[in-house]
Amino acid sequence: MWRRIQRMLGPDLAEDAEDELQHHIEQRTRELIDRGMAPEAAREEALRRFGDVERVRREVVEIDRTVARRRGLAAAMGELWQDMRLSARSMRRNRGFAVAAVLTLALGIGANLAVFSALNSVMLRPLPFSDPDGLVMLWEENPERNWHMETVAASNMLDWRERVAAFTDVAAYASFDDRMALTGEGAAPQIVTATEITGNFFSVLGVAPVAGRVFRFEETWDDSERGAVLSYDAWQRSYGGDPDAIGQSMRLDGDDFRVIGVLPPNFRYPGSAADVWLNIGWSREAYADPSFRRAHWLRAVARLAPGATLEQAEAELSAVANQLEAEYPNTNRLMGAGLTPLQEFLVGDVSRMLVVVLAAVGLLLILACANVGNLLLVKSLGRRREMAVRTALGAGRWRLVRQTFAESLLLSAAGAALGLLFALGFTRTLGAMAGETIPGIAAALAFDGRFAAYLGLVTFGSTLVFGTIPALVASRPDFGDMLNEGGRSGGQGRGGRRAAGTLVACEVALALLLVTGAALLTQSFLQLQRVDPGFDPEGVLTATISLPQARYETDEQVVAAYDELRSRAEGLPGVQRVAAVRQLPMTSPSWSSDFSVEGRPPDEYGVEVLHREVTPGYFDALRVPLLRGRAITDADRAGATPVVVINEALADLHFRDADPIGARIAFSRAPDDDATWWTVVGVVGNERQGSPAEPVRTEIFAPVAQDVSRGMNLVIRTAADPSALIAPLRQVVQDFDAELVLDNVRTMADVRNAATAREEFLSLIFGFFAAVAIALSVVGVYGVMAQSIRARQKEIGIRLALGAARLRVVTLLARYSLGVVLAGIAAGLVAVVVSAEVLAALLYDIAPRDPVTLASTALLLLLVGLASAAVPALRAGRTDPAVVLRED
Asked: Which long-range contacts (CB under 8 A, 24 or more apart) does 619-622 make?
């Protein structure tokens, strides 16, 4: 019965529903009396059946209100649909305006979506691990060595695993990837990227394989078979996705590994491009070796125990680090430890860079919105009489605002749709420009809930930004100006002029902010390019090569192989010098150690000296200046006196008042009787070991024949184009050993450019944003000037008819635009000064508030503004007063 009454309800029917209910109660009461029930009991039974009348009345009234609200909402949606249809017809009639507005919005929205997609894929998307919030990165710090959040030592990591109760487990992986030659059954010869891990690495992350299995912790040690877990892409690429690949043997740099599993396709570890993951194969005896605690080269990942907090885990970790310092003072002096949530640690500096870029495209979108807002104001001039008439006929202010917002929403929706297409191209361009600068950046738009929410935010946010001022101005028509054609303004109105001037001033301010950022980043990049790398990169080809231990078992065989390769490469046409070095300059610093100088007190030692192993001819090949003594020669072989060459930074820091030539050093703070003493035979100029923005560090160079390394980089200087040597060099290596594969073949100029790739990327992308900002500012200033002149046509004609000089008229017209531009520049300079520190961390050798840059960009925007205003002003100065007055 009650459902039937509900179906009957409509607006204003609450009383009818109550009457209907009362009728049914009385009817039921009579039926019960007729059956012999007492009247009072019959009435109570009827009420129990149909409920309390007052309660029913309240429910009926509420339902009545709900129905009314729904019908009101339906009516509102109908009116909105009508407004959208009117807006669509208006846009069809003004195609030029619509196209300009949609393209402007699409540019701003598309750039925002592309950058947000990159930010989402790198920073916001959860790591593809089980419960990623429970994972933390462990690191070590040492104030004496200037370490913070540095790599860890193997023995320290294993002790943390045993002693910190707040961790369920701790795993580790090599902080660097190895490039290895893959050969063997079922796989085509190729170079792959491999990373060594402890056996519990994947179990700590919570990653299950799609085929086979992953390592167990017991497989961390060398008494288990060396295995390989493939990435999904490597499995598809090298084995065609064949399930029978599990159990096959693969040869990496001549060593055999057994394929035991394949990772899922969505697995990615930020910062690593590993195709193959290998169990690390430590010796159990090495745990007690001091070198196992002295060498810091691992990244350690831990999973928090259930209920453990970050604060609790960090306190326990610090306590264990203090215990280890007391137990092992020789290796753990001042060695602290800490932790950071894994995702926060892995995004690192990339997050700051992407946030800065996102802020820049946000400014670009606001600038685009200001431009479209000005276009809407200009368009509203053609409808000023319509708005005034509609207001005079009784149209409410909200009705006029809603109509303007409907048009703004339609423009935003069209701009967002086209912006999605622009974003596809922007994303590819961004990925190509970023390269290795932003590891993990997606090559396509990352569609997910966050991306959809951001798309909605920029669409409706843009509507509010560029639609508010035109809507408010349109909803308050000035009858004295709009309905009277004789007004001085010709219908523009003071409110319209102020609104247009405000929007243009905002455009100029935002453009100044972007142009200043681009100028600072470009100067920073150019300053880095001017930094002397300490070597001559022109005319040099480099290539990485690694000799497998399976075929080159002894140090003598390794040294002989590199000697033979150098000899054969020197026979190539145009080659002037061939050498090899373990670590190329300007890539990343090599391994480091402490050192002591013979004859000095025990408390006088050096820390963090970098080591590089080189062959004879290295300094000649890169033209590193020899400042004192001699270079490494062929006589510096095994069995001869161990020698080193030091760089100028080490000589200046540790041999200020003494000649370093002939000094003997050992790579330990407290050398014992078994220490090896190396004699300094030469001093060379400083090479930049990493980014040119980083200070030069102390460094020594040892002969590879006395400190053997299997992985080396060939350095070949040629009088011709280095790229022409690539094919002949590959042939030389193949003729020497068919299983050796060259990797990272590139010119030394490319190596140098890669060291400043981040700065180049930022300067290019900000330069693009600045160019767009200037273009939009030109359109804005031109538009408001043209709008002002159109509104003052009669005044211009009268002035000219009365004999006013045309130059004076032009100056008078340009004065308003000049004021608007100057106001925008002033606001922009304030914004630059306030926000300068945001860019400070990204700049090199340039102050974020550099006065010359600020003055230059302000002058540039002033000239652009004047030029934009001059065109319509000069055109107005050529107005024929007779024509204007005749039209009036």
From this structure: 619/645, 619/684, 620/577, 620/579, 620/717, 621/540, 621/577, 621/578, 621/579, 621/715, 621/716, 621/717, 622/535, 622/536, 622/537, 622/540, 622/579, 622/585, 622/687, 622/715, 622/717, 622/748
Strand partners for 477: none
Please tell me whether residue 706 adopts helix, strand or coil conformation.
coil
Mean pLDDT, the chain, as a whole number?
83
DSSP 3-state assignment of 194?
strand
Angle between helices 342-381 and 806-840 (to 10 degrees): 170
Task: Tell me the C-alpha distance between 171 and 150, whole Å.
Answer: 16
The pLDDT tens digits for 655-664 are: 988 899 999 9
CB atoms within 10 A of CB 230: 27
Highest mean pLDDT among 452-456, 534-538, 550-554, 690-694: 534-538
* Contact yes or no for 477/468 (Cβ under 8 A): no
pLDDT at residue 47 greater than cutoff 90: no
Q: Are 164 and 157 in contact (CB under 8 A)?
A: no
pTM of the model: 0.76
Find the helix or strand (DSSP H, E) in which 171 lies. Answer: strand 167-174
Residues 166, 187: Cα–Cα separation, whole Å: 43
* 214 pLDDT above the threshold of 90: yes
Let me know: does 712 contact 704? Beta carbons within 8 Å: yes
Task: Specify the 3-state DSSP secondary structure of 664.
Answer: strand
327 pLDDT more than 90: yes
List strand residue ranges (DSSP E) for 598-642, in order: 605-614, 626-629
CA atoms of 266 and 130, how far apart (whole Å):
13
Task: Using a pLDDT cut of 70, give the percent of the chain over it.
Answer: 82
**Dist. CA 325–CA 435, nearest whole Å:** 41
User: Distance (Å, rounded) from C-alpha 471 to C-alpha 492?
Assistant: 15
Residue tagged 């039974």 (tokens): 45
| Other Cβ atoms closer than 10 A to 67 | 16
Backbone phi and psi for residue 675, each to the nearest 5 degrees, phi listed first: -65, 145
DSSP state of 865: H
Q: Could you give phi then psi for residue 125, rounded to 5 degrees?
A: -70, 130
